[in-house]
Design goal:
Blueprint (H helix, E strand, L loop, with lengths): L1 H26 L19 E10 L3 E8 L10 E11 L3 E3 L6 E3 L5 E9 L2 E19 L8 E7 L3 H19 L2 E7 L18 H16 L5 E5 L9 H10 L4 E8 L10 E6 L7 H11 L1 H4 L17 H21 L7 E7 L11 E8 L3 H8 L1 H21 L16
Parallel strand pairs: 1-4, 9-10, 9-11, 11-14, 12-13
Antiparallel strand pairs: 1-2, 2-8, 3-7, 5-6, 6-7, 7-8, 12-14
Length: about 425
């Protein structure tokens, strides 16, 4: 209770200080020595703060501040503090849906205060304790707005995550089980593709629902353990996704997505991808890979320099993994195609970043077209999500059989890709 009163008092003081700052800025003399004059004619309309959101992951918390246009902001790039202040020194409005105080309370971030008026915008992020943070811009991309992100590191979070993955690897070795890493595409700031407005479904929610159901199905297969890379609504960089699978010593990697095209309502069916060393075989596949690979842009991850594949292009291990990946893709699609509600669009290749590990076979499943109203309704339906998960799990089981990889008490076969 005492902490709550102190927090409220702190917010009140900050609001008072911000208002005083705004008044001083407004009444300060201009270059001619006169008081704050009238706005210049034909001045551009002020940008609006359109959203302030919070996302909590096992390793960090993110505060995402979205704007109606690109703005310049003043803030420390990084550091350690109890309060992080971001200032936009230009007129700004606050959309009605944006609360003045966003109460987060995720154990890392207490709350966020937003003040936006003709003198500028101020954002004060109160943290539970003095903690490491960084502040960065995310440029607008397609339908995603310009935003400023305050990312706060969860103390001990990275170490706990490494320990969790190491424990899975230890369990695998001790119990002689096969580990399948299930990757729910997108998450947090990165919503992925959107369904029609009258359906109201986002790719990041569909992928997580199907991934959770798939893990449940895999864990019913003796000798198999399914593990999620993303267990909640938060962002994970693309490279980190398969690196997580490598650390848990996964035998397979399956990334779940929902397809979409720019042509309204078009597209239908399921397709499964494995990695192409030379890029996608068709323009549509290249476009899809580019769209999925753009997730890191939304999450504020710097562009990677160079191509990881160059040094291992002729590696025998890569060739073996690609052959196994193709077999996995074929067996999974064969089982998914048994559902007559969706057509099979075939097995394809493209340069998806998440498929670039050489440690295990990897596939990316485009479950259905989320921009197609009929398929969007299916993707939103828990019954369909469970059915899709069961079919993929049956495909995994069939793959182990066809690849002669032993499960449970059967005679253990070779490690996939090895």
């Amino acid at each position: 209770m005492k902490r709550g009163r102190l927090l409220i008092a702190g917010i009140a003081c900050a609001v008072a200080a911000s208002l005083a700052w705004a008044h001083a800025a407004h009444s300060a003399p201009d270059a001619s020595g006169s008081g704050g004059g009238a706005a210049a004619p034909h001045a551009a309309a002020p940008h609006q703060v359109t959203a302030v959101k919070s996302w909590a992951s096992p390793t960090a918390s993110r505060i995402t501040i979205e704007f109606s246009g690109v703005v310049a902001h003043v803030s420390p790039d990084s550091g350690s503090a109890r309060t992080v202040i971001v200032t936009v020194p230009e007129p700004a409005g606050r959309a009605p849906s944006v609360p003045e105080i966003l109460r987060v309370g995720d154990g890392l971030v207490d709350s966020v205060l937003t003040i936006a008026d003709k003198d500028g915008a101020r954002f004060m992020v109160w943290l539970r304790d003095s903690t490491r943070f960084r502040v960065f811009d995310v440029p607008p991309h397609e339908d995603r707005p310009f935003s400023v992100v305050v990312e706060v590191t969860r103390p001990g979070g990275a170490q706990a995550e490494v320990k969790r993955l190491e424990n899975i690897a230890s369990q695998k070795k001790k119990e002689k089980i096969r580990v399948v890493a299930v990757d729910a595409g997108h998450g947090g700031d990165d919503v992925g593709a959107r369904g029609p407005r009258n359906v109201g479904v986002l790719e990041k929610n569909v992928t997580l629902a199907v991934a959770r159901a798939l893990v449940d199905q895999l864990n019913q297969i003796p000798g198999v353990k399914g593990v999620l890379t993303r267990s909640g609504d938060y962002f994970i960089p693309l490279h980190d996704r398969y690196h997580m699978a490598e650390k848990m010593k996964a035998d397979l990697f399956i990334s779940i997505h929902a397809n979409s095209t720019k042509k309204k309502g078009s597209g239908s069916g399921t397709e499964v991808y494995f990695l192409s060393l030379s890029g996608a075989s068709a323009q549509a596949d290249r476009d899809l890979a580019d769209a999925e690979n753009a997730a890191d842009l939304v999450g504020g991850v710097p562009a990677q320099t160079g191509d990881e594949l160059v040094n291992i292009l002729y590696d025998v291990k890569r060739s073996s993994v690609l052959q196994q990946s193709q077999l996995l893709a074929e067996t999974v699609l064969d089982n998914v195609a048994a559902d007559r509600r969706l057509e099979s669009r075939g097995v394809k290749q493209a340069g998806f970043v998440v498929l670039k590990s050489v440690e295990f076979p990897s596939i990316l499943v485009e479950t259905a077209f989320i921009n197609n109203p009929n398929e969007a309704r299916l993707l939103k339906n828990p019954s369909f999500q469970a059915s899709m998960a069961k079919q993929i799990a049956e495909g995994v089981k069939d793959y182990f059989r066809r690849a002669r990889i032993g499960l449970s008490e059967e005679t253990a076969g070779p490690t996939p890709g090895g």
